[in-house]
Amino acid sequence: MGELIDDLLDGQHRALARVITKIENRSPGYRDLVRELHQHTGHADVVGITGSPGAGKSTLVDKMAATYRERGLTVGVIAIDPSSPFTGGAVLGDRIRMASNVGDMDVFFRSMSARGQLGGVSTATTDAVKALDAFGKDKIIVETVGAGQNEIDIVRTADTVAVLVPPSSGDDVQMLKAGILEIGDVFVVNKADLDGADRTVSELKEMIMMRDASPAAGTGGYHGAGTDATGHHGPDEGGTAGSDSADPDPSAEITGPGSAGTPGSTTDQGGPVETDEGEAWVPPVVQTVANTAEGVEGFLETLDDHRDFLERTGQLEAKTHKRYAEEIRRLLREDTRALLERELEAQGGIDTFVEDVMARETDPYTVADEVVQPLRDCLGESE
After folding, report:
1. Assign residue 193 a region: left if phi > 0, alpha if psi is -120 to 50, beta otherwise?
2. 3-state secondary structure the chain
3. Residue 142: which of 155, 150, 134 has the closest Cα?
4. Is-contact 50 180, C-beta < 8 A?
5. Distance between CA atoms of residues 355 and 241, nearest Å
6. Tens of pLDDT, residue by residue, the chain (383 residues)
7. Nearest to residue 264, comparing CAs of 282, 285, 287, 283?
8. Which of 202, 132, 128 is nearest to 165 (CA)?
9. Residue 224 in contact with residue 185, Cβ under 8 Å?
10. CA 213/CA 231 separation, integer angstroms
11. CA-to-CA distance for 183 and 215, rounded, in angstroms?
12. What is the pLDDT of residue 246?
């Protein structure tokens, strides 16, 4: 194991690939690998790309990687694909849509299976990101499976989340319910050369305004100090509903990279703003045409702006703190579940308990108490 870690830290891509394979397969010893890598992490900028299927995520990620390379930055890409019901492996093989970077050893691409996770991100993704970070990649892009509004787990992995929306008659925008709408730090109308792009931009701007002004958001809120790691706003934090800073003109165009109404442009609604509670972030709306790379430079500038905002306001550290807290909780849940599964088998297996429940000789709550009791005894707890 030590030699494998040393090779990874020395910049050998073969070692990086082997480590990620062990992580994805949950091979024996993978936890020891991640433990060794952890002290070498914390340097990469992690960007999540999510959105509905057909929005052009893979094409945009390809152009993002190519543009980062033109800037002299190294890139790691993890593309989460739907998993095969037969093998558990990725079925789309996103790598075939990453043509611009074939042969470039400073762009490391890996398809990973979603493993049936409704959140759109495999449970191994966080560990794979750590491997890429420890390897020394400057930018890490995580492209999610595109499963719809359940796809919110990306906020537990990425520093900045971009939500892609294709031009439409409005139905796709209306599908962006609270889950997806609230996690977006940047919204991207891709395929902006198609009919309906301007209307989609306007609808997105209006929905962002409505979200931030909603009492349910707690604030009028923006992604300011009141935003937690899941993109939700805490009570009495961020901007105030109805304040001037929370009430930009949704029809106003454009101050930002690019020119008004063109790919790469953003609205004056987006970016850092001053509120009564301090500086906060309003998700900008950016237009791109990924096939031709039009607007990609402006999009990356917007991502850089968000990263600068997080660092300047201390929110990057706060997000990292919450991310690790959630990771620890998730690992505890997984380990506890595994222990209880073994205890269940030791007491005769689930089928035995089910038969007793069906015969009305016991009930599910009693079964749960009996299975958990040894754990309670070890922890010295009682109900």
Report:
1. alpha
2. CHHHHHHHHCCCHHHHHHHHHHHHHCCCCHHHHHHHHHCCCCCCEEEEEEECCCCCHHHHHHHHHHHHHHCCCCEEEEEEECECCCCCCECCCHHHHCHHHCCCCCEEEEEEECCCCCCCCCCCHHHHHHHHHHHCCCEEEEECCCCCCCCCHHHHCCCEEEEEECCCCCHHHHCCCHHHHHHCCEEEECCCCCCCHHHHHHHHHHHHHHHHHCHHHCCCCCCCCCECCCCCECCCCCCCCCCHHHCCCCCCCCCCCCCCCCCCCCCCCCEEEEECCEEEEECCEEECEHHHCECHHHHHHHHHHHHHHHHHHCHHHHHHHHHHHHHHHHHHHHHHHHHHHHHHHHCCCHHHHHHHHHCCCCCHHHHHHHHHHHHHHHHCCCC
3. 155
4. yes
5. 56
6. 789 999 999 999 999 999 999 999 889 999 999 999 999 999 999 999 988 778 889 999 999 999 999 999 999 999 987 654 444 444 444 445 555 566 677 899 998 876 544 444 667 889 999 999 999 999 999 998 764 544 567 888 899 999 998 887 455 566 665 567 788 999 999 999 988 888 889 888 888 888 766 555 544 344 554 444 344 434 333 333 333 433 444 333 333 333 345 666 554 468 888 888 888 999 999 999 999 999 999 999 999 999 999 999 999 999 999 999 989 998 999 899 999 999 999 989 999 999 999 999 999 999 999 999 988 888 876 55
7. 287
8. 202
9. no
10. 15
11. 17
12. 37
Phi/psi for 137 (5° steps) reads -65, 135
Residues 131 and 23 sit within 8 Å (Cβ to Cβ)? yes
Q: What is the pLDDT of residue 350?
A: 94
Decide if 288 contacts 60 (C-beta within 8 A). yes
Tokens of 305: 């702006």
Which residue carries 């990279």 as its tokens? Answer: 257
